[in-house]
Amino acid sequence: MSNPKIRITVRELGNMEAELYPDKAPKTVENFLKLIEDRFFEGLIFHRVISGFMIQGGGFDEKMKQKHADPIPGEFESNGFKGNDLHHGRGVLSMARTSDPNSASSQFFVMHADAPYLDRQYAAFGKLTSGLDVLDAIAGTRTHSVGWYDDVPVKPVVIEKIEVIR
How far apart are CA 41 and CA 34, in angstroms? Predict the structure, then answer.
């Protein structure tokens, strides 16, 4: 059976496509696919954009109102999970979390550049197969501080939809 493939459609910028790796992070991929099926991500934004590091989305709408999802176990080595050896290189998808290793829910990030210090600390679960130009365009977005969040795009970078593709 082949790995699931997804398309992230970003308003005015285009599409990023990715392959997900259930063999590396099975519960993470299962949760992400369920959120896609529930259309959870539609209208949410990339709310943290740090060029040369990553873009993060999946938790807030354009008014910075948070949308909640249930937490899942962190599938990474420092949390006792074995087998997730996916490196945090350019284009890799990984789950955002708080200091609680089991706090990931819906917020994910896409690596704009390599960050090996995140390996074994966060649940990487997929990688872009196309759309690096869209990733670069998002990473180049002008940002400012909003509330307790730094690096929020001045003009919202909206996820129109995420869908499974065949």
Answer: 11
